Structure formats: C-alpha cells, structure tokens
Amino acid sequence: MSFFSFLTSRALAAESLLCVGLDPHPEFLGGGGAASAREYCLRLIEATADEACAFKPNSAFFEALGAAGMEALEAIIRAVPAGLPVILDAKRGDISSTAEAYARAAFERLGAHAVTLSPYLGLDSLAPFLADPERGAFLLCKTSNPGSQDLQDLTLSGGEPLFLRVARQAAAWNRADNLGLVVGATHPEALTMVREAAPELWILAPGVGAQGADLEKAVRAGLRADGLGLLIPTSRALARAEDPKREARALRLAINTAREALPAASGHALSGARARLADGLLEAGCVRFGSFTLKSGVVSPIYLDLRRLASYPGLLAQAAAAYLPLLSNLAYDRLAPLPYAALPIGTVISQQTGRPMVYPRKEVKEYGTKAEVEGEYHEGETVVLLDDVATTGGSKFEAIDRLEAVGLRAHDVVVLVDRLSGAAEALARAGVRLHAVFTLAELIEYWHSRGSITAEQAGAVRRFLAGEGSGGG
Prior knowledge:
There is one protein chain. This protein is an alpha/beta fold. It has two domains: 3-260, Alpha-Beta Barrel (TIM Barrel); 272-466, Rossmann fold. The chain has helices at 3-14, 26-29, 34-48, 59-63, 66-79, 96-109, 123-130, 149-152, 162-173, 188-197, 215-222, 236-239, 244-260, 272-283, 313-327, 342-353, 394-405, 423-429, 440-449, 455-466; strands at 18-22, 54-57, 87-92, 114-117, 136-142, 179-183, 203-204, 230-234, 287-293, 299-304, 334-337, 359-360, 373-374, 382-390, 409-418, 433-439. Helix 3 runs parallel beside helix 5 (66-79), helix 6 (96-109) packs parallel to helix 7 (123-130) and helix 9 (162-173) packs parallel to helix 10. The two termini are 42 Å apart.
C-alpha cells in the first residue's frame, strides 16, 4: 500500500483531515526535560487519537533535548496507535549518502511513515525518501511564514512564481503515490494556485490557529475534488486547551463542516486559472464567431485562432501552464509541439518544466540538413505531441508519421481545446490518447453563462457540435 493510500484509508475511516502536532515546546512543559516531553506527547496522543487523521511530531523540539530527547521521540512514534500515519516534521534536505542516512533515521530508526523535505537540492536529494512507496514525503512549497515571499514568490522566466514550479515538479515526481506538498493555509490564494497546478496531490496546510489562517478559506482553496487531499495540522490550540480531546473533536467537526459547505463540482463549471484563461482567450480575439471554412472544407460558426497567443506573453504563459497538470501524469522524454500555433506554447512549457523539445516540420526543405524533425533526440525515445486544438486528428497523424519515421514514439497528444469532432476517437483507434485542457462544449457553456457571448452564438455552436461536426487538425 502506498503512503497516501494509507493516509486516505485513515481519513475515510476516521472522517478526519485533522493532523495533530506533537510539539513539546518548553512553555508547555514547565521547564521539564525529555521525560516531560515524552509524557506530554503521550497524553496528547491518548486524548486525540480517535479524532486525528495523522500525527506530526516536530523533530526540532526533541533534538534540542539531546540524546534523551531523541529516545523520547522514538518512543512517542512507537506509541501512536496502528493505522495512524506519523509525519516527522524535520524539513530535511541534503544529497547522496547524507540523504540516505536521513531517510534511514526517519523511517528505520524512528519509525515515521513520512517526513517533510526541502525541494531546494532537487530530485536526487528526495530519492532515498521516496524509494519505498509505503513511506512518503511532504515537499516544502509555499510555507506559512511571512518570509516565504523572499524566495518562494520569485517570478521565473516563464512567468510563474517559484512555489508553483515546485508544485508542478512534485506532481511529476509523484510516481509512487508518496509525495505531497506543504502549503501554508495563511496564503489561500497560493493554496488555490497550487491545488490547480497539482490537483491530485495531498497538501499539508499549516497555519490555522495561532498563525491566524482562516479554516474555511483554507478548506475551500486546498480541498481536492473528492473531498480529500488536505491535512490541517494544529498543535498549540490543542496544547493550550483545557480538554484536548474535546478541542480535537471540535476542530475535526469544524473541518468537516467546511468541507460539506462546498458546492458540488459541476462537470461544465470553470473556476480559478481555467476560468481566467477562458476569459483571456475571448478577450484577446483568439475566439471568433461567424462563418469559417476549416482545413477539411467544413464551414464552422466558430474559429479558434490560437496563433494570436504569441502576441500576448502573459496569456501565452497562462495557456502553457494549463497544459502542465495533464503532462504531469504522462511518461515522456521530450515535448513535440506541432507547427505553427503550438510552437510558442511548447517553448514556454519547455521553459516551465525544463523538458527538452523537438518538433516535426510541416515541410521538409530540399537544402540544409533536410531534417524531418528539428532538435536533438535519440531513437526509441517517447515524445508527447502538443497542439492548440484537436478536430478530426488529421494533422496529428501527419506529425506522428514524421516522428515515427526517425525512430521516436508517440502515445499521447495534449491540446488546449478539443473541438469534439472525432479526433479523440480517431486517435484512440490508433492507440494514441488525446488529453485536452478544455472541450469546446464546456467553453461555450461557460462563456454563455457569463454573458460573454450571445445566445445566438452559443446556439449556433451547439447545433454545429450536435450535427455535422467540423474538420481540421
């Protein structure tokens, strides 16, 4: 069982997303040493175990007590009832044999199920902690402290903040369902952005309570579509409570009340970054209504001119970012955007992810290298095709033929808009999967519900989709 399967099982069984912090701060111990810390944590575990989804001991308070403190930490982790995950809050980050030693200390010596880690040293520093699917990690992404903005909010060349790149990278690294994120509940807007960028990951969201974060806002921003995926840790509120058991129950119920207050997800609703992108496409003139002859000769009441994205750098970055959650679930070596509309999109995605890019030419020149595929690649590698729209799939098959002719493999196509005109079905028959940020139908419903397009425009497209369909790429 993977770590997050274990955590999910506990969350469902206990109907709880409450994470109880075990932080034996000196002010709670009355000046006592390791023995006092041990007794304090054992009492808290006994009082709150029925209400908790997980426990989170903070290694620093035990390390400060020396060897006796570490012995107390080991005993406290052993005392947590079976079936309850233990997340060691240690914020480790190092490389090679040092990272391996930290992993052995956390998992083998102390017996924790997961640990908090720093992303700063990259994937190789995380690998020892992720090697066993039953053991997990929460990667520091956007921390709850005010100073997090000093580095975590820095804007990268692709236009997104550093913390969002960490979130997308974590989604790509989560191959064994054992990597999550730490995002402070004190930053609800950042929490919303991270949830959109990493829709499947579990998030540990500190800050509710003493740091002043709003519980309802945190739940609204960080909860997954399935009502899970979010852990709310608290320690000082329980430590200061006259009755920790009653306080833990109240917190668990408050979290569940906030969960239940959320509206049910709608299959056609757009929100957050996707809604902003849909609005931007319309405002930038990337969507036109009228009478347009497509590549196949079919006349369509709507035309998607996504080549215009190249003239709007901010919108281009938004569009590229919308591909990333879909790409994070795919296995590939290189990006392969199709000329011409997808080339700027693919370039920005390459910058945002660090993944190399090649592209199949529309026409092969009779001079120079006469290359069918531009860029560096190796025979046998897998590429993921990127395009702006999918209609019948014709242009995708042309590109796949060129890529396969040089020894590359393509199993997936990712587009911004699926026009719902047969591309997905045609590609599936050839063993290729189509993934789309939007379908044309959901865009039309969204724009119409917002009053951004007229009833006549929406009706014309609906009738078109229900009738003869359209043609093109």
